[in-house]
Amino acid sequence: MDDLLLNQFLLLGAVLFCLGVYGVIARRNAVLVLMSIELILNAVNINLIAFGAMHGSVAGSVFALFVIAIAAAEVGVGLAIVLLIYRNRRSVDLDDMAEMKG
Amino acid sequence: MLDKAWIIPLIPAASFFLILFFGKRLPNKGAEIGIAALGACFVLALVTNVQWRERVNDAEHAAEKGGEHSEEGEEHGLSDGESAAAYAAVAEEEHVEFDVEPLHETWTWWSNGDIDFSVGMLLDGPSVMMLFVVTLISLLVHIYSTDYVGGDRRYTHYFAFLSLFTASMLGLIMSENTLQLLTCWELVGLCSFALIGHWWEEKPNSDAALKAFITNRVGDVGLICGVIILFFGAGQTFDILTINEMAVSGEISHLVLLVASCSLMAAVMSKSGQFVLHTWLPDAMAGPTPVSALIHAATMVVAGIFMVSRLYGVFFQGLSIGTSSINLLAVVGGLTVLGGASLAFVQSDIKKVLAYSTVSQLGYMVMALGVGAWTAALFHLFTHAMFKAGLFLGSGSVAHSVHSFDMKEHMGGMKRFMPKTYITFVICTGALIGLFPLAGFWSKDEILAGAEQLGGDGAYTAFLVVGLLGALMTAAYMTRCIYLTFFGEPRGHAADKEHPPHESGPRIVVPLYILSGMAIVAGFANLPNSGALSWVPDGLALRFEHYYEPKGEYFPAVLDTFSHPEFNIGIALGSTLIGLVGIGLAYAWYWRGLGPQGITSRNKVARAGHRALVEKYYLDKLYTDVIVGAVKGPVARAAYWFNQRGIDGVINGAGAGAVRGGRFVYDKIDQGVVDTIVNGSGSAAEGSGQGLRRMQTGRVQQYAALLFAATAVLAGVFIIVI
Amino acid sequence: MVAQNIFFFVIAAAIVYSGLRVVTSPNVVHAALHLVVVLAAVAAQYILLAAEFVAATQVLVYIGAIVVLFLFGIMLTRAKIGRDQDLTHQGWIGGAVTALVLFGVMAYALLDEYGWSETPVPADPRIASVNGSNTATVSDSIFSAYLVPFEAVSVLLLAALVGAIVLARKD
Question: Does A77 reside within a domain?
Fold first, then answer.
C-alpha cells in the first residue's frame, strides 16, 4: 500500500461517472442535469490525468485542458438554451418538455 | 391351269373397272367387255375342271400302284411344288382310298407379330365345281341381260356390277382362309345390294335393297364371331385347310366347334335365306330378273351352303352330325323347307313364287348338310342352279312380253303365245319337283336317302318326313304357278288385242334352252350304283362324288361316323309318287275346280291360316314393328333421357359446382384466409408499432437512460462474455 | 507514499459524498455548492498526480466560471429556494439501476485489466521536461504538438460565445 495504484483513480473516476449518469437520468431540473454532466466530464478528466501520470506523458494533461475548455463552452451554450426554454415556458421542469412524445 | 386358277376371279374384276371407265363409249355400252370376260372365265373354268379330273385320276392310279411308289407321283398340272401325296391307306376290294391334295397357294399380305394375313387360292373339288356353275350361269345371264335390260337407264352400271359380283363370288369359292372368305362374302352382299336396287328411283326397290343388305349384316355378325372363334380354336390361324384338319382330327375341342358352328349358322341363315332371316329374299325380287336368276337363285344364296361345305369338318364334328338324329343345321333346313313351300302358295307374283321356292330348296341343301349327306347337298346345289336359273329366266321372258310379273292380273294362257318359254319352264319345273329322270330327281332323292340312312339311332327320320312333305308342296305350288301363267284365259296385258304377247328373242330363249338341257342331263352326273342300281358300271357311277368330294385329312369322310347314302328304290319311287300326287292335287283344284274352293271366305280357321301365309308368318311385322320398334321407341327415349339428364346433368352440374366452388373460394379462402393473413400482418405491424410507440415518451432523460443501459449491457457482453 | 494514499482516500471520500449530494439534494443551490466541493477535490487529486497546471486551470475555470454560470442560471430560471420535492423523477430507480449496472461493468473491466495492486503509478510522477516545470511542459506541448486542436478549441469557444449571446438575447 505504498504506491498509488492506478486502479484507485480509475475506480474513482468510474464512481463519479456513474453518479453523473444517475443524475442525468433522474433529475428533473435542466440546470441540475447540466451539473451532472459536469460530474461526468470531471470523471473523464481524472482518468486522463491518471493515465498521463502513469505513462509520464503530458498528453493526458493537455487533453484534460481541452476537456475543461469544451466543458465551459458547453455549459455556456447549454444554459443559454435553458434560459430560452424558461423564457418560453416559464418552467425548466423536464417532465413538461415531452414535445417529442410519439 | 390348275395352279394359275387364281387368275379366273381377276378377269371379271378387271372387266368391272374397264366397264366403269370405258363402257359408256363402246357401241354396246360395256356389255361386250362383260360377255367377253365371262366367256373367257367359262372357258378357263372348263379347262380347270378337265385338269382337276386328270389330277383326281392320277391320284387314284398312283394309289392303286401301291404305297411305296407314292412319292414319285405324276407332275401333271401339279406345278405348285407339292407332289401328289396319294397314298393308299387301305386297299379295299373295290375302292382304293386315296387322297387328292388340293392346290394351295398363299401370298402373305402383311404380318403382325405371329399372325400372317394372307390371300390365296384353295382349289379342290367344291371350288372347281362352283367355278363351272358360277361362270356358266353368269355368262348366260350376261347374254340374257343384253335383251332384257336393253335400253335401261343404267345399262353400263348394271354390267359393271354383274362383273364385280362374278369376281367376288369366284373369289369366295377360291378363298384359302376365313378372312378372305369373309371379305368376298361382304363383297357379294354389296353387289347384291347394288343390283337389287338397280332401279332405286322407286322407293320399294331401294327399300328392298336395304332390307337385303341389313338382314345379311345381321347374319354376318355370326360369321365374324365364327371366324374369330375358329381362329383362336385352331391355334391362331385363318387357314381353312388347317382348321378343317384340326377339327376332323379332334384337336379342337368339341365345345369350341359347337359354338363356332352355331355362330356360323347365323351367317348361313341370312345369306342362304333360311328361316328366320329369309325375309329379304322375296323382297329382293324387286331387282331385274337376270339378277334374281344369277344371284338369288344360283350363286350368291348358295354362298352359305358353300361355306358350310367348305368348313364341313367344323360342322360335322361340332354338331355331331354323324352320330345324332337331330341337329341345328337339319332343324333350320327342315323348317325352311316347309316354311318356304307353304308361303309360295299364296303369292300372285311369279318371281315371288320362285323366290320362296328357292328358300325351300336352300332348306333342302342345308338339311342335307345337316344329316351328313355332303355330296347330296352340293349335287342338289349344282342341279338347282341349273333349273332354278332356267325358271327365273323363263319368268323373265314371260314378264318381258306382258310387262308385269303379276300372274293373276296380267298372265294366263301364255302357252300359245310363248311355246318355247312354256316348254323350258315345264322342263325346269319337272326337275324342281323331282320327276324321274330329270336332274332334280337324282339330287333330291339322294338327300332323302341320306335323311333315312345316316346319323345315329333313329337316324334323321323326322327330316325324311319333312323332305317328302316339302316335295308334295313343291309339286303343288309349281303346278299352280304354271296354271296361272300358261293356262286358262289371258288376263290384263296378256289379253291385249293390239299388242298381243309374243315369244322372246333368241338372246333370251337360247339360254333357256341351255339351262333346261342341263336340267335334263345334269342328274346323271351322280348316278348311284348301290341298291337297285348296282348294275351301273363303276366308271359311270357317282362321277360327281368321285371328282368333287374332297379326299384328304381335312374332310370328315375319313371318319368312321361319315358315310354316304345308298340308293333306296323305295324312297325314289315314293318321292316321285308324292310329286305326282302333288301335281294331281293342284290339277284337280285349278283345272277341274274340285276341292273346297273359296274356303277361306267361309271358314274362319282357313281364313286365319291364309292370312298368316299372306303376312309371311308375321315375320316382317316382328322384325320391323316389334324388334326395331322396341329398339327405336324405348331405346331412343332412354338415350334422350340419358342425354338430357345424364350428360347435360353432368355438364350443368360441373358448371354449378364450379360456380359454388368459386364462391366458396372467394368467401372462405380469399376473404377468410388470404385476406386474414394480409390484414393480420398489417394489424400486427400496427399493433407492434403501437406497442413500440410507448417507448417514445418524448422525455430525453428516458432516452438517455435507455442509451446508457444498452451501452452497459453491450459492454458487459463484449467484455465479460466475449 | 503512505501520506499520498491517505490524502487520496480522504479526497476521494469527499468527492463521492459530494457527488452523491449533487445528484440527490432536494435543494438546487445546495447541489451547486456540493458541485463546488467536487470540483475542488478533483483539483486536489490532480495535484496528487503532479498535474499542477491542470489543477490550477480546473479551479480557475470550473469553480471560478462554470459554477458561477450555474448559479446565474439557477437565479434566472427562478429555481425554488429551499427544499424542492420535484427535483427527482418518479422513476429514479431505473436510473439507479442503470448506473449501478454501468458501474458494475466498468469496475469489472478495470479490475480485470489492472488488478488490485499490480499497476502502481510511478514513484516519481513528476513529468520532467523544460525547466522542471509542469506548466512549461504543458505549454510546450500545446503550442507545438497540439497546436491544431488548440486553435480548434479557440474557434469552438468563440462559436460558443457567439451562440450563447445569440440564444440568450432578448428580442
Answer: yes
